[in-house]
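Quick one:
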Amino acid sequence: MTTNGGRRPVFCTIVPPHVLDRLAQAEDPALAGPARRTLQRDAFERTQRRLTTVLGARAVTAAPEAEPGRPKRTVYDAQHRTALPGRKVRGEGDTPGKDATVNRAFAGLGATFELLLTAYGRDSIDGAGLPLDATVHYDEDYNNAFWNGEQMVFGDGDGEIFLDFTIAIDVIGHELAHGLTQYTANLTYFGQPGALNESMSDVFGALIKQYTLGQSAADADWLIGAGLLAPRVTGEALRSMKAPGTAYDDDVLGKDPQPATMDDYVRTGRDNGGVHINSGIPNHAFYLTATSLGGNAWERAGQLWYDVLTGGELKEDADFAEFAALTVRAARDRYGAGDELDAVTKAWEQVGVPTR
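Output:
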């Protein structure tokens, strides 16, 4: 049995397992302890998601329907426990409270909803006004944020390596975009389709950040998770779409392993076939497309990626080449033989992915 109308939701985290694995081996228990507990909690949540997929989702009380074109946001506080969703602390229409983490989560849900509606005419991540739920203050020193197929969850970080996971609005957008993929192409979370799944979340996370800040493609930093790393860490963010492999180079975290082109594609059985690593390749293709076209990335470049994700032609097990070919077709269908087609074709060529 599957959930969400035949969709198979998966458990998706913002911090890759290879980063936590590295931290878990640190000699300093202040670094290794939280990482090990986070890995254990992630493994538990991942197993729960698989069981839910097989057995069916638990019955829940239906939320009041939102007015079409208006968000229906709810933020919960786990109070450093792990039971979800936790205690409700803010709903749609409530005034901001004193908890900055709650307010950031609420704003991030709204920013994601607004971009999808304004730029693409989509009413929430499912296209039908789905309520957006988030839980903050999850567990103790939890070094991650995740989408579990039903809602967002944010840890506070350990303060040593990671800070509060609501700080970076692109992290909020990234995780909600896993829901967007779940309700559309439903890309298999393994190998190249899994890397595409992760890349789509980075793309839309970056677009939500740029839209919120009013940044053009040229002005944007193209970093995922900027501001998330604690001061002791030598690095800027979790990932860089502009220059994959350069986001961090730290004595504890190691060096960012993402490749920018197929020449450095990583073949591994870990992390579901390297979904967080090889996503650097399609990420870089999007960056090249967006900066070549100029202007606002959520417009022409973002529109093409959205067209492919939601157009019904993208297979669940699509590889990079199949996805690339669809972006070329989308450029031709929407814009004809112009700058858009040229930018997309050259971007994929530059990262070594064929489009025919």
